[in-house]
Amino acid sequence: MNKENFMQTTINLAKKNVANGGWPFAAIIVKNKEIIAEGLNSVHLSNDPSDHAEIAAIRVASSKLNTSNLSDCEMYVVGMPCPMCLSCIVLSKIKKIYYSVDVKTKDKALTKLPLTEDLYKLISSNFAEDVIEFEHLEDFSEKGELVFKNWNNI
Question: Is 54 marked active-site?
Answer without folding.
Answer: yes
